[in-house]
Amino acid sequence: MNSLGRWAGWAASGAVALGLLSGCDKSCTEMGCVDLVRVELTPFEVQGEVQLSVRADEALIECRYSQALGEANCEAQDVWLRLDRTAAGALRLLGFDLVHRLPARLTVSVTLEGAPVASGAAAPSYDVFEPNGPGCPPACSVGSVEL
């Protein structure tokens, strides 16, 4: 065997030994994730101020959004709005994600300029999501409800 072949053999043996010694039997990536429940709404055009009121189990979460206010008021409450624009450029609210919470029950009320747009109560169902592969941390729970 030539020296290159011996070197390749030693390198391969060393890699296998390191893998066995470290207990590494799988390859994990390092993506992060957050626990959340996604609330789907019937999309509506945002013309004015939107007020969200969410009861997540016993916690009451309220936030306001308008183009002038921006999303900071809701983000401070761990409410991530899901907005998009129509082909004509109109801003629409599709729903929101309630992050860092896994409530057993949600009661939601959404108003636009004080007029009711959506409301309802639901018990989210949750799935565990492992973005780095099975058995690789972190594992996050993701739930959804449709109003």
Structure description:
- The chain is of the alpha+beta class.
- It has a single domain (36-146), classed as Immunoglobulin-like (Sandwich), CATH 2.60.40.
- 16% of the residues lie in helices and 46% in strands.
- Strands 4-5-1-9-8 form a five-stranded mixed beta sheet, with no helix packed on it. It has a four-stranded antiparallel beta sheet with strand order 3-2-6-7.
- Strand 4 (79-85) and strand 5 form a beta hairpin.
- The chain is globular.
- The model is unreliable at 1-24 (pLDDT under 50).
In short:
With 147 residues, the chain is α+β, with helices and mostly antiparallel strands. It has helices at 3-22, 72-75; strands at 36-45, 50-56, 59-65, 79-85, 91-99, 106-112, 115-122, 125-129, 140-146.
Label the structural class: alpha+beta
> What is the averaged pLDDT score?
85
- The CATH topology label is Immunoglobulin-like
Strand content: over 45%
Question: Distance between termini?
Answer: 70 Å
Written as H for each helix and E for each strand, in order along the chain, the element string is: HEEEHEEEEEE
Tally of DSSP helical segments: 2
Helical percent range?
10-25%
Q: Which architecture does the CATH hierarchy give at level 2?
A: Sandwich
Q: What Rg do the Cα atoms give?
A: 24 Å
Number of domains: 1
Shape: globular
Tell how many strands the DSSP assignment holds: 9
Strand arrangement across the biggest beta sheet: 4-5-1-9-8
CATH class: Mainly Beta
- Describe the oligomeric state of these chains in a short phrase: single chain
Poorly predicted regions are 1-24
Question: Tell me about the biggest sheet?
Answer: 5 strands, mixed
